[in-house]
Amino acid sequence: MGHTPPTCTTLAACDAHDGERIVVAGRYCHFPDLPGIDYSAAPRAVRIELEDGLGPFLDPFWSPRAIRPQAEIARFLGKPVRVTGRYHKDMPRNPDDPPQASAMGGPCIEVESIEAAR
Length: 118
Fold this sequence. Notes:
The structure is a single chain. By secondary structure, the protein is mostly beta strands. 10% of the residues lie in helices and 36% in strands. The protein starts with 6 loop residues before the first strand and ends with a strand. The mean pLDDT is 89.
């Protein structure tokens, strides 16, 4: 398979590997997750919470893969995970968007795999 990608647990450490294949280690969380709001009917994005705050979204917001499978959410929500994939400090633009379109910001990781952290 090759070398093991570096692991990051803070946003600064992840950002230092912009565009690279890395492992992001943190807590699997819904986003947004504001108290008192019923999101049960809404498709949910997921972010990884890092030691210093909110880390990357799982997959770019515009990707159909950003809506995580219900079985995955049930298995990992609120738990420590290790996500392997290509990290982007700034979410890539949707290739289908016109140049003037606004884009969702923030970091993301193009998910290859997710596993429970030990």
